[in-house]
Amino acid sequence: MSHTFIEQLAAVGAQAPSADNCQPWTLHWTGRALEVAYASRHPDTNVFDADSHATLLAVGGVAENLSMALAANGVDGAWRWSGGASQPYGELAVSAPLPDTFVAPSGPARRHTNRLPYQSTALPADVLAHAGAAREGGNRTVVLTEPDARECLVQLVRQCAQARFCNQDLHRWLFGSLRHTPQEVAQGDGLDMNTLGLPPGGRAMLALMSSWKRMEALNRIGAYKLLAHTETQLLSAAPALVCVVGPEERYGTLDAGRLLTRVWTELNLAGVAVQPYYVVTDQVNRLFAGTLPAGFDPWIWIAQRDLARLLGLAEGEMLHMILRVGFPAREPVRSRRLPLAQLFTSAD
Asked: Do you know which InterPro entries this protein is assigned to (predicted)?
């Protein structure tokens, strides 16, 4: 098979979204199939291991991008996922013969995060209906446009964000993910400070918060509440929120990653800006894992209960991700990616 085609296929897969742009995957061509496996990046600060929910969402995103690329080239492929927690996660067998020229689908390259303010203009009904009809496996989307429903979800996000700002591990992860200088940005992973859309004084505030000792002191006077309120202001102003919900188990999460990536990509192609919010899912997962900061368990239990009522979650279902959506007010800086040589290997 054409090594160039497979390499270009892998490059499209690697454009998938991941938590704070950590890109926790490797792709390996065996000569007949493309394997997707876990890559541990920045282990000193990383809070998401190979089997964490956030990592499985990202792997599902890689799978969706690869499937988009095969479809764009008229090539058949078959996924086979590994059982349990084994590595690699799975492999994509690609049918021969391959085209002489690779056609890159436009969607994965155009999908991006927009953390800036959006226009208040309502989104077209057909765009919202299309997003709301999306399905993958047992996963579905729930679109919230009514002000009361949106504000209820915003309050839950705010509640969970308070817990996050009191978590030392998440503090270390955030500040380990930030890229300040051109040299750091050129690495191709993490959060370029220019993508954050910080208000005046925002960089100084982050610098103040960068020490956990200072953060603890600020939290004693209620800083975590103010920060959580600030974080949800843009969410509260969004004309619509799209929630990806579905089964809690491993394969359900992989499918949720596929659905998340597809909906996000299609919205971007329709000219709609998107920002993901993971904090509710993350804090609920930490509740069940017993890793919340002291004193927050009752509040996150309440958030989990209210979330199930708001989104109509059935037994065994969970919220996988919230998307803030709206027409962009301006174009954001886009995150960079790691060089393909760090993400892709081949037996050929």
From this structure: Nitroreductase-like
Residue 302 has which token pair? 């309440």
pLDDT tens by residue, 219-277: 999 999 999 999 999 999 999 999 999 999 999 999 999 999 999 999 999 999 999 99
Chain Cα centroid distance, residue 42:
18
DSSP single-letter state for residue 293: P
With beta carbons less than 8 A apart as the criterion, state whether 277 and 157 touch: yes
Q: Where are the beta strands (DSSP E) in 229-336?
A: 240-247, 273-277, 317-326
Q: What is the CATH code for 125-326? A: 3.40.109
Nearest CA-CA partner of 274 in 287, 265, 286: 265
* H or E, element range at 7: helix 3-13
User: Which phi-psi region, left, alpha or beta, contains residue 102 (left: φ > 0; alpha: ψ -120 to 50)?
Assistant: beta
Q: What's the sign of the alpha-carbon dihedral 251, 243, 37, 30?
A: positive
Q: Which residue has the tokens 């990536």?
A: 261
End-to-end CA distance of the chain: 9
> Is the predicted pLDDT of residue 1 greater than 80, yes or no?
no
CA distance 105 to 266: 12
**Whole-number percent of the chain with pLDDT over 90:** 94
* Helix-strand-coil split of the chain, %, nearest 5: 45, 20, 35
Domain ranges of the chain: 3-111+339-346, 125-326
To the question of domain 3-111+339-346 being in CATH 3.65.10.10, the answer is no
Q: How would you class 13 by CB atoms within 10 Å of its CB: exposed for 0-12, middle for 13-18, buried for 19 or more?
A: buried
Under 8 Å between Cβ of 57 and 256: yes
Please give the pLDDT value at position 151: 97
pTM, two decimals, is 0.96
**pLDDT tens for residues 7-24?**
999 999 999 999 999 999
107 touches 266 (CB < 8 A): yes
